[in-house]
Amino acid sequence: MPGPAEKAIEQDRRDLLVTVARELAEAEGWAGVTTRRLAERTEIDMGDIYRHFPDLEALIAAVAVCAFADLAADLAEAHAETVGSPEGIWSAVATAYLDFAYTNPEVYDAMLALTPDLALGVDGVPAAPRAVFAELRAALTPLAEGRDPDTLAEVGWSLLHGVVMLTRGGRLRPEGQEEREALIAQRLLRWP
Hints:
mainly alpha, 9 helices
């Protein structure tokens, strides 16, 4: 049975593989993430890589969970920066979400397109995806005014995700981007 030092070394290797896979994906797309490339960049034997991640799907899921944790932290920071201004919480959180999604497109795809088992807000998934949903819910709860906060959070998340995917796919007018984002962040989810 491995001791604490061996477990720490294994965790460091796993973390390094996730970090390098994430960097490769953002630079070259997920097609650029291969076991051979990971072995070259991390100096970890291919057999050891397969011991940590038996297939690409497992590695993508690990990258996604790590990215969900990063996104949750970004949303929490945006929320914290609006202390004393409940009206500005959703706007700040929505902006942080969109910034993350546009800055990390391949990782965002890993989180929300390539890993269907990591549903936000659903029991049984790792804590990080649930934390993102919790941050979205917390940001929208002050706007609920009698509406179900979970449903409002699902609608808010859907709006953010939809605008990200449609924008990235070139389906929306580029000149309308700023107005769309302002509408989602500042006006659309308010009670009439």
